[in-house]
Amino acid sequence: MTERVLCVSSRAPPSPALSWVGRNLAGEGGQVALLVADLEAPPPLSGPVDRTYRVTDPAFDRGRGDHWAAAITEAARAFKPTIVVTGPSKVEQEALARAAAGLSAPVITKGRRVRAAADGVHAERDLLSGNAVGTETASGRPVFVSLAEEPTVTGEAGRPSSATETVSLAVSLPTYRFRRVSMQPKPAQEVDLEAADRIVSVGRGLQRKEDLPLVEALATALGAAVGCTRPIAAESGWLSDDHWVGLTGHRVRPSLYVAVGISGAAQHLVGMRDSKLVVAINKDANAPIFDQADYQVVGDLYTIVPELTRQLTAAKGSR
Ligand SMILES: Cc1cc2nc3c(=O)[nH]c(=O)nc-3n(C[C@H](O)[C@H](O)[C@H](O)COP(=O)(O)OP(=O)(O)OC[C@H]3O[C@@H](n4cnc5c(N)ncnc54)[C@H](O)[C@@H]3O)c2cc1C
C-alpha cells in the first residue's frame, strides 16, 4: 500500500526526522511532500522528500496556527495527500485541527508508532493519564495525525528521493482582525530536566519553601538537577515549571531519580517511571512511590536528607 504523505514542520529549520516519518508511512513508491515556511533562508532539501512546498509570503506568521492551517489546506489541495502529519508543537496541533475540520478529515492527536494500512491509519495513544496505551484507527483518507513527540530518527526505511522539487505556495491568509501586539521571548530555562542524568525531586513532604536548600544540597552532592511534583510548582510556586515532573510537567528518564517526600500519584509516576534507578524517601511505609522504588527509605526527610548529604559530601572529600 502506498501513501501520499504531507509533512508539516513549523520549526526553523524544519525537522528532517519528520520527513523520514513521512517516508516510512508512504511506503515503497509512495510520495512525500514537506510544507515549510521559509521566509528568509533557501528551502532545506535534507530528508527524503519528493517535493517541498514553501510559503514565502512575508505576512505569514509561523507562530500562528490559523496561518499554518491555511497553508496546509492549500498544500493539501495541490498535493492531495492521503496522510498529513505534523510534530507535537502547540502551533502544529492547532493548525492540524483547523485544517482537518475545514476538510472534514479525521484527526489523531499525539500519536505514537503511526502505521498506515488498508483499513485505516493506526496510532498508539496514551490513555488513563499515561498508565495505559490504546490504538486509535482513523479510516478513510485523508487522515491527519500529530505526533506525541518530536521525531529524532532519520534514515533507514525506503529510498531517498532522487529529485526534490520546490514549489512556492501562495496562501490566502485569514483576513479577520487579529493582531499580535507584542512578542516576548520565553525566559531562559532554569534547568533542562529532560536532559538531566540525575534528579533529586521534592514533593509536599517538604513543609516550607525555606527548607528547599536541604534538597538542593543533596542534589549538589549527587551532581543532580532539582525536580518537583506539581503542587510544589503549580500550587506553592516554590519552584518554576521547569522543575515540574509528571503528566502535565516534564517526562524524565535519568539514570538516578531520588523522590523526597513524594507520595507517588499516578500523574507524577508517568513523568518519572522511565528512570533507571529510583530511590524514595518517605515517612509513610505504604506510600505508592515505594512500588516504583529500587531503594525504599522509610523515615523523616528532615533527618534523612541532611545525613545523606553529609555522608555523600564526606565520601567525596575522602576520595
Ligand atoms: C489532571 C492532573 C494532572 C496532574 N499532573 C501532575 C503532574 O504532572 N505531576 C505531579 O507531580 N502531579 C500531578 N498531578 C497531581 C497529583 O495527582 C498529586 O496530587 C501530586 O503528585 C502529589 O504531590 P506530592 O507527592 O508532592 O504530595 P502528596 O501527595 O501530598 O504527598 C506528600 C508525601 O510526602 C510524605 N511526607 C510528608 N512529610 C514527610 C516527611 N517529613 N518526610 C518524608 N516524607 C514525608 C507523605 O507521606 C506523602 O506521601 C496532577 C493531577 C491532575 C488531576
What does the model show?
- With 319 residues, the chain is of the alpha/beta class.
- It folds into two domains: 4-169, Rossmann fold (3-Layer(aba) Sandwich), CATH 3.40.50.620; 193-317, Rossmann fold.
- It has eight helices and 14 strands.
- It has helices at 16-26, 65-79, 90-102, 212-222, 230-235, 266-272, 289-292, 301-317; strands at 4-8, 31-37, 51-55, 83-86, 107-117, 120-127, 132-138, 143-147, 165-169, 198-202, 225-228, 256-260, 277-282, 295-298.
- Strands 7-6-5-8-4-1-2-3-9 form a nine-stranded mixed β-sheet. Strands 11-10-12-13-14 form a five-stranded parallel β-sheet.
- Helix 6 links the parallel strand 12 (256-260) and strand 13 (277-282).
- Helix 4 runs parallel beside helix 8.
- The N and C termini lie far apart (62 Å).
- The structure holds flavin-adenine dinucleotide.
- Flavin-adenine dinucleotide (FAD) binds next to helix 5, helix 6, strand 13 and helix 8.
Topology-level CATH name of the largest domain: Rossmann fold
Please write the string of helix (H) and strand (E) elements: EHEEHEHEEEEEEHEHEHEHEH
| Shape, principal axes of CA atoms | elongated
Q: Largest sheet, described in full?
A: 9 strands, mixed
User: Count the strands?
Assistant: 14
Overall tally of domains: 2
Give the rounded overall mean pLDDT.
91
What is the helix content? Answer: 25-40%
Q: For the terminal residues, how far apart are their CA atoms?
A: 62 Å
Structural class: alpha/beta
Rg on CA atoms, Å? 24 Å
How does CATH name the architecture of the largest domain? 3-Layer(aba) Sandwich
**Small-molecule binders:** flavin-adenine dinucleotide
Contiguous helical run count: 8
CATH superfamily of the largest domain: HUPs
> Could you list the spans in which at least 5 consecutive residues all have pLDDT below 50?
none
